[in-house]
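Aim 2 progress update. The chain analyzed this quarter is reproduced below.
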Amino acid sequence: MFSKFPFRVTLLLWLVLIFTAWNALRVWTALAWQNALSKFNLHPSLWVIIVSGLVWALLGASLLYGIWQEKAWAKKMLIGAAAGYTVWFWGERFLFPMPRPNWLFAVILNLVLILFISFTTKSLQREAYEREPEHH
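Predicted structure tokens:
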């Protein structure tokens, strides 16, 4: 299925697919369980969960398309999405603290993912450069 891509890009596609599916599931769950969830004092609110999940799911779907079709804008969008998702994730953690957060795991995983995305975008850039036709 992903044989036309190098291994790192294939892993990146899977990573984006997982984050996209996770956020789509957040939206669907929040909408499907809206009546039950409205009885609890949610932090963030139900609509924040729905809107943020929808934004990240749509962004992830467009990013999947861009990487799969080898679009030139996909690299910049990937870097922007990774930075934005990191800011959103940590902002949500600071604004709505959990009772027993596992900070060390979250920091390590976040750094590993950012490093992986950084190295993979270099691979995407090199492949795009090799693909571009020369203008004489």
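DSSP finds five helices and no strands in the chain. Residues 7-131 form one domain. These observations will guide the mutagenesis experiments scheduled for the next reporting period.
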